């Protein structure tokens, strides 16, 4: 009986320690992925600020989508490259600096999504997007940029954009 109790105690001890070790490995893996994702996003924003076209688009998947602040800006990657190239060629694209960012990773560790508050030439903006692992490298697959408008100013902004929005809606 004592041997059975000792065996059960040993199995319980090993099981608990194995679970704790597995959790620590999982936490380390998640933090490592989040660090890699933050590095990619920061480098992507820096590449735009430096007007480095190749570095900027190397951080995106071939099928990436970029949704800009204008209602007409829903760009497939090749179209976004064509739109962006003249800005990069002039040596001045755009400059976004993340003030805060939240990163979330799927349970399989191959898809991540994020939101960020940005300091930009348009003042505060929000960015959000999806990254996926491509050959062990995180790449931006989808990005949405929006201008942060204080709730108290929404009515005046709506009035400013109403005519343009009517045109866009009539074309859809």
UniProtKB/TrEMBL annotation:
Transmembrane segments: none
Residues of the SnoaL-like domain: 37-150
Superkingdom of source: Bacteria
Protein name: Nuclear transport factor 2 family protein
Originating species: Kordia aestuariivivens
